[in-house]
């Protein structure tokens, strides 16, 4: 699997609208044939910190995600709410094996 | 869900033994009743960088994990291979809802 891990810090006061926009992106992304997971997490110790755990079957599937209307709408909506640039790290999965995802 | 995200940097030359030790920890953790996922990832751009995505039903289940023989064996095995302290961030999940994990 091709896994993109994104850490996000939101400007104070924009947490709720960030959550709403990201829920819509979650729902849209989960309909993509190449997407396996799109988990949205909130940090326990920092209300402005969020994490996206995005699992795709391949790097090409992630590239396709970045062309979807729901991703582009999310990207535009959240741009002004970022407290700092998002930190995205790309991975390949070791365990579980792909068939077990 | 209670989700622990751990970023790990391994000293050069210890990547393979780190992978073997972590596969054993993955297998043991997945047998815990309170564990939902234990994904082990390798960064695409840095062969020494790894990521653990650990999903538990509750904070108490994570505390129980930290008392298991497989976790304690892993912790002791990898201690000397860390290039810097591990970075663990604790989260609660927003989406999907718990029943869909």
In total, how many beta strands of chain A? 4
Q: What is the overall silhouette of chain A?
A: globular
CATH architecture of chain A: 2-Layer Sandwich
The SSE order of chain A reads EHEEHHE
Question: How would you describe what is shown here?
Answer:
2 copies of one chain form a homodimer. The first copy, chain A, has helices spanning about 15-30, 60-65, 70-80; strands at about 1-10, 35-45, 50-55, 85-95. With about 100 residues, chain A is of the alpha+beta class. In chain A, a hairpin with a 5-residue loop joins strand 2 and strand 3.
Write the layout of secondary structure elements.
The structure is a homodimer of 101-residue chains.
Chain A: E1 2-9, H1 15-29, E2 35-43, E3 49-56, H2 59-65, H3 69-78, E4 87-95
Antiparallel strand pairs in A: 1-3, 1-4, 2-3
Helix pairs in contact in A: 1-3
